[in-house]
Amino acid sequence: MPIKVLVIDDSALIRQILTELLARDPAIQVVGTAPDPIIARDRIKALSPDVLTLDIEMPRMDGLSFLEKLMALRPMPVIVVSTLTQKGADAAVRALELGAVDYLPKPLIDIRSGMLELGAELVAKVKAAAASRPQARQSRPAAQAPLQVDPRLSTAGRIVAIGASTGGVETLQRMLTRLPATAPAVLVTQHMPAGFTSSFARRLDQQCAMVVTEAEDGRRVLPGHVYIAPGARHLELARTGAHFACRLHDGPAVSGHRPSVDVLFSSVAAVAGRGAMGIILTGMGRDGASGLLEMRRAGARTLGQSEASCVIYGMPKAAMQAGAVEAEMPLDRLTEEIVTLK
After folding, report:
1. Which member of 225, 287, 290, 309 is catalytic?
2. pLDDT tens for residues 56-100?
3. Is 191 a residue of the active site?
4. Single pTM value for the model
């Protein structure tokens, strides 16, 4: 059976282009389009699509409001199609927090040729989304009190490295907002393009007790801080004298990605060893498996997100099959393990 897609966008041109691009793949069928969420709501009921593509700025109801309602009442895979402006990046990050599986940047100029260049990426994202497992969200999720670090444990010199891809934005938000200001230093590689990671870090900083920033080359790594790998740059952990620091570079893609989880994990294995913990979260592909195995061999704790709690059980599965994961856990347990890192 082909993957059934409903395209939601107020631009007739974009609806036409997306339909044409998806129709090129025999495994995908565009069963309908909608110019706004109100019409989309009825067409979802009538057509039962497997995946939605969703614009954000639309008449009658904006895409974010629609997405929040949808994920509370009828969770399903959604790919957000957003502009490349800063405003568009902020909205796209918010959509991912609300449960959208993925995003596709919409070019601002020369739309047709720009979108045509994204055709293969769009098809791949739709296929991945169809295999995902979005979970129901409360419209206003109950606030959870931050966990507490045992005062007898010192977080100085302790490093937590986290890797994530598809589904990772919402997952990281849920995890990091539970951590107290006294938690160990956290370095994060989330597959995300340039321009989006600054918005992601800024939003998390507003929500977390820890200080969250986009990583900068040479910045000292401190407890109580989270460092997000910038889009399109690799993040590594380095040692400068008695201290740890962030190292950024523009090396080639590793495991198909820049930033790469493998690059982060390998560097943590080399310089932090037993004083580190590696956690691999939801995502498609294999990035992080070999680097996490290096961490395990160096004596670090290595944990994976459980299949039932993943949006896409790809990266954790690859790491488990490689022998890199000592244990798999649901998200809440993973968060608890961070605050007990000895």
Report:
1. 287
2. 888 888 889 999 999 999 999 999 987 755 566 788 889 999 999
3. yes
4. 0.90
